[in-house]
Amino acid sequence: MIINPNFFPNMHKAGFVNIVGNPNVGKSTLMNQLVGEKISIATFKAQTTRHRIMGIVNTPDMQIVFSDTPGVLKPNYKMQEMMLAFSESALADADILLYVTDVVENPEKNMDFLDRVKTMTIPVLLLINKIDETDQQRLGDIVERWHALLPNAEILPISAKNKFGTDILMKRIGELLPESPAYFDKDQLTDKPARFFVSEIIREKILRYYDKEIPYSVEVVVEQFKEDDRHVHINAVIYVERDTQKGIIIGHQGMALKKVSTEARKSLERFFGKKIFLEIFVKVDKDWRNSPKELDQFGYNPQ
Fold this sequence. Notes:
Order of helices and strands: EHEEHEHEHEHHEEHHEH
Strand order of the largest sheet: 2-3-1-4-5-6
Number of strands: 9
Helix content: 25-40%
């Protein structure tokens, strides 16, 4: 994604552009398209994103700090409470808010969160995603419903997957950004360390290859990360809540875990551009999703 710096001569703009919305509307896909790199894992499953993840776009005259957030939901356990806190924190420090919906979700879903968005005084861009999955007449009806709910929001139809409307969106963000010095170094792409992306890439493979509750009962922790000029040596642990889940993750004769390890290693080699030596272990940590201590250790602390 290229921004023309000549739009804003003789000034520097910078700000936080936070992406919020309900689960599975395409927030992570949009984030990756806008940043131009795969910062957030994106799958067809809801609740893929668990943390608030920043992706930074830099030009000589501009710095846009995007934040991808977990989907807004009614919490059923402590981890989901923490995920909701990440989304709510994005309302507090945004210079521009991107509220993402799509052409199939009910606009009245999670009205409590939407009511908070309605009271915001910063620019709110309502993005209707996946417009390639509907027709013009139905899209017009959707726009009218959303305009009634968020009358002060600027509505932009997009297809993040197909990059439709993303150039217009980036231009509009550039116009709305406040004048400010950069918040991060100009060569910085994200606020997350390398270990975070290792755990996310492994978790992405689990989301893709396991069904039902298994991916949502899993946390991945990188216990060792040693890097040199040509290689990265990684030891990671997949935590599950029950012994039966451990057996499913490992699979018959270890074949399921071997598949995850192989696919994760390939993705990590593309990500780091180096040879990866990856060892993955599986451990049981009962009810970690409801343990404040464990959640804090796993990085679920929005402060």
